[in-house]
Amino acid sequence: MASPTTTPTTATAAALVDRHEDAKYAFAFKNLDWEAYHRYRPVYPESMWQMWFDYHSTHGNGSFAAAHDAGCGPGTAATVIGQKFDKVYVSDAGAANLATAEATLAPKEKFVFHQGPAEQTAAWLPPSSIDFTSICMAFHYMDPVATVRAVAETLKPGATFAAVTYGFRLLFPGQPRAQALWYEAASHESLRLMREGKLFPAAIKGLARAMTGLDFVAFPSNLFEEGVKRVHVNVEENEQRALYFVDNEPGLWEEAATAVAPTDTREYIQDPTWGRRADAAWLRGFLASSQMGFGETTWALPAWQELEEIVNSGPDGTIAIEWPVSITLATRKKDA
Predict the structure, then answer these.
(1) Locate the Methyltransferase type domain: which residues (predicted)?
(2) Where are the domains of the chain?
(3) 3-state SS record for the chain
(4) In this structure, are residues 165 and 139 in contact, taking their beta carbons and an 8 Å threshold?
(5) Looking only at Cα atoms, what is the longest distance across the chain?
(6) Does the model's pTM come out above 0.70?
(7) Quick one: pLDDT at residue 302?
């Protein structure tokens, strides 16, 4: 990963550090408005959970005894997982994130909380103790090789490893101009923030990984069964760079390498439940929820102002949006 060509000023660097518990973990903020996060992020639809739990029932050991949600944030995914599993282990690198999850999740006796990065999963969970591990919208901030190895050590033979990432390159069905304007504004501002040194190197690396979906994550054949399932939602089979929302600019960021194995399978589906109607305020909130620094400068861009004009002219001042989504489902080797 190339380093940004612009060195952050002392004031900028201090502001970045002041917001974070640890600069290595880009979303481990000291304080974050999780209510706003939930308001401006997609709800994981029932179709995803059905896909995950059906896969777990048919491909692996099918046990719903113990699950682990790594990079749990405020406990969004663990809330649903807790409805299916007897015991759920919940972990996050950020103390504030974990505290929010602990205050939210119930009943308390079902959940076990641990502060620590996913790369250190095997240091606190016993070997071969977990039936199902999930990572939701967090894998791109982790070391994928170390995380996969650590998680694999804790999974029972036949257990499931599930992950999901959705894109910040919003889709606007039937509105190609709006879709182009969204990309133009998001790319312009992302590159500006990089040049101004307003993003941690860990955040830039995470951004590059997230734009591959989950193709940067390898599932070694000595740890997982062949045929890892890679599902692309609201993405056409011949579509390239479906989740990318930042133009390439040498010296600012580099694309993450793909780690897809020849034996991995790919599936392309259209799922409108990964979507909603949004007004201009919601679109601002969604982009700002990335915590990259989008704000008034972004909303003043001609491209953004034209986008808002299109949105405001729609029914009730709204427009239909969808997310491109990447999902992986892998099975721990049964003879492990």
Answers:
(1) 69-162
(2) 10-166+209-274+325-331
(3) CCCCCCCCCHHHHHHHHHHECCCCCCCCECCCCHHHHHHCCCCCCHHHHHHHHHHHHHHCCCCCCEEEEECCCCCHHHHHHCCCCCEEEEEECCHHHHHHHHHHCCCHHHEEEEECCHHHHHHCCCCCCEEEEEEECCHHHCCHHHHHHHHHHHEEEEEEEEEEEECCCCECCCCHHHHHHHHHHHHHHHHHHHHCCCCCHHHHHHHHHHCCCCCCCCCCCCCECCCCEEEEECCCCCCCCCCCCCCCCCCCCCCCCCCCCCCCEEEEECCCCCEEEEEHHHHHHHHHCCCCCCCHHHHCCHHHHHHHHHHHCCHHHEEEEECCEEEEEEEECCCC
(4) yes
(5) 59
(6) yes
(7) 98
* pLDDT reading at 30 higher than 60: no
User: What is the dotted CATH code of the domain comprising 10-166+209-274+325-331?
Assistant: 3.40.50.150
Region 165-188 average pLDDT? 98
- Rounded CA-CA distance 145/218 in Å is 7
CB contact at 8 A, 185 and 301: yes
